[in-house]
Amino acid sequence: MDGRWYDADAGPLVRPYAMTGGRTKPGPHGVRFDLIALVAVDPGSGAVGDEGLLGPEHRALLRLCRSETQSVAELAAEADLPVGVVRVLLGDLLEAGQVKVSRPVPPARLPELRILREVIEGLRAL
């Protein structure tokens, strides 16, 4: 291999489309993963037997989610993959029943700060 096309420091280069099989959108259902969507391994998925059918990037995402629930943005950063690739791979894992995805509570549905302070003050008074 010609040394001009390979940099030992960079390591092997894999294009993002190779990791996703050329797909740019997750799954046939067109699922959309927000950056703050929370991803966790589905405990009832039987992931041990099915992991052999997954690619190395899928397995890396599963390993990251196994220890704790993480957002899509955190997974992309930890796996050192583009967010678009992570979304497609998560779509595969979701369809295979390997992960669960939940949305955090929107700020508009959170209790007001005034109410939270009153609750804290009430608890302190006990």
What does this 3D model show about the protein?
- With 126 residues, the chain is mainly alpha-helical.
- The protein is built from six helices and three strands, in the order H-E-H-H-E-H-H-E-H.
- The protein has helices at 16-20, 47-50, 56-67, 72-79, 83-95, 113-125, and strands spanning 38-41, 70-71, 99-102.
- Strands 2-1-3 form a three-stranded antiparallel sheet.
Q: What would the keywords be for this entry?
A:
6 helices, elongated, single chain, 126 residues, three-stranded antiparallel sheet, mainly alpha
Strand order of the largest sheet: 2-1-3
Element pattern in H and E: HEHHEHHEH
pLDDT average, as an integer? Answer: 78
Helix content: 40-55%
Write down the Rg: 20 Å
Q: How many strand elements?
A: 3
Coarse structural class: mainly alpha
Strand content: 5-15%
Uncertain parts: none
**Number of helix segments?**
6
Gap between N and C termini: 74 Å
Give the biggest beta sheet. 3 strands, antiparallel
Shape: elongated
Short summary of the structure?
With 126 residues, the protein is mainly α. Helices cover 44% and strands 8% of the residues. The chain has helices spanning 16-20, 47-50, 56-67, 72-79, 83-95, 113-125; strands at 38-41, 70-71, 99-102.
Give the SSE layout.
Layout: H1 16-20, E1 38-41, H2 47-50, H3 56-67, E2 70-71, H4 72-79, H5 83-95, E3 99-102, H6 113-125
Helix pairs in contact: 4-5
